Amino acid sequence: MIQKWRSQCSGVLAEAIEPISTTIAVGMAATLTAFIASYPNIFYYFHECCRPEWISFNYTGLKADLDSKLFGQHIATRIILKAVNGFMTNNNPKKPLVLSLHGWTGTGKNYITKLIAENIYAEGMKSNFVHVFTATLHFPHQSHYIQYKSQLQQWVKGNVTNCERSMFIFDEMDKMHPGLIDGIKPFLDYYEKLDGVSYRKAIFIFLSNAGGDSIAQTALDFWKAGQQREDIELKDLETLLSLSVFNNNKSGFYRTSLIDKNLVDFFVPLLPLEYKHVVQCIIAEMKAREMKVDEKVADQVAKDLIYFPKSERIFSIKGCKTIESKLDYYV
């Protein structure tokens, strides 16, 4: 096992000494070899490797981040914490962890993936083991569908071969060509190994606006009935959500085997944000910029956003998506 870890870090060492002249390189190599022999693990602390020094789940950190940085998402907070903790503390999972996050723009889908990455990988989203696909960037042409499918399979296989604790994020699933994502279906299934590679410790996260309208309508129905937002439970949304994206012929999940074969562990609904949640986002942004918190400014920025329905102005159409630029205008 130790040799396996080392082989995944050796490439950078060779690359680092390659441009140096042969004489100097030989001398440095000899010195470096002796040093590493004396301190065999020292190299791993300076270059990211697929080792516990760089990949280690921080439950306390994730819980604190979700509680203090993700606003108005009691369902998502609960699911994400339990799902990630259960998976990362299981030394022998039967399949990869597969999460599908759904909701309107600005509700926190990308932010959640960032928090997960930061509490698993020392380098967070910059980690070499965190991989992001964006449908409109990586798969723009329908005519290249077959090529994309093959490339996607090879890319996932190559990265999991390099590190079994890889994380894959697929953004804009609502814009992905239907059927393309089925190319990775075998990697998400209950196979011990495929061509000698185990995918069971990898994480796959799908992000989509699809289903956002259904989620918003459910939240609005609760509000009209005088029920608390916190009374909305996963059971009120999960079936509706999965059916909504499965039957949407403009979604990357359209009639996908990932849903049909129950390979998505959790459909995570992100509720539309209310005015008070937007204010919390603005104040959090002020603190992140080390600004003096000005509640009047936060209130003004929040009021200038567009809300739905137009008459009641309950939910922010863009959530917290544009608050950074909006805040620049007011300060």
Describe this structure in words.
With 331 residues, the protein is an alpha/beta fold. It has three domains: 2-45, no CATH class; 59-270, 3-Layer(aba) Sandwich (Rossmann fold); 275-330, no CATH class. 45% of the residues lie in helices and 10% in strands. It contains 15 helices and seven strands. It has helices at residues 2-7, 10-17, 22-38, 59-69, 74-88, 109-118, 135-138, 145-162, 185-188, 212-224, 238-246, 257-260, 275-288, 295-303, 323-330, and strands spanning 97-103, 130-134, 167-171, 203-208, 266-270, 307-308, 315-316. A five-stranded parallel sheet has the order 2-3-4-1-5, with helices on both faces. Strands 6-7 form a two-stranded antiparallel sheet. Strand 6 (307-308) and strand 7 form a beta hairpin. Helix 13 (275-288) packs across helix 14 (295-303) and helix 14 crosses helix 15. The chain is globular. The chain starts with a helix and ends with a helix. Residues 1-7 and 10-20 have low confidence and may be disordered.
Query: Do you know the CATH topology of the largest domain?
Result: Rossmann fold
Number of helices: 15
State the end-to-end distance. Answer: 55 Å
Largest sheet: 5 strands, parallel
Q: Which whole number gives the mean pLDDT? A: 87
- What share of the residues does DSSP label as strand, in percent? 5-15%
Q: Supply the number of structural domains.
A: 3
Radius of gyration: 23 Å
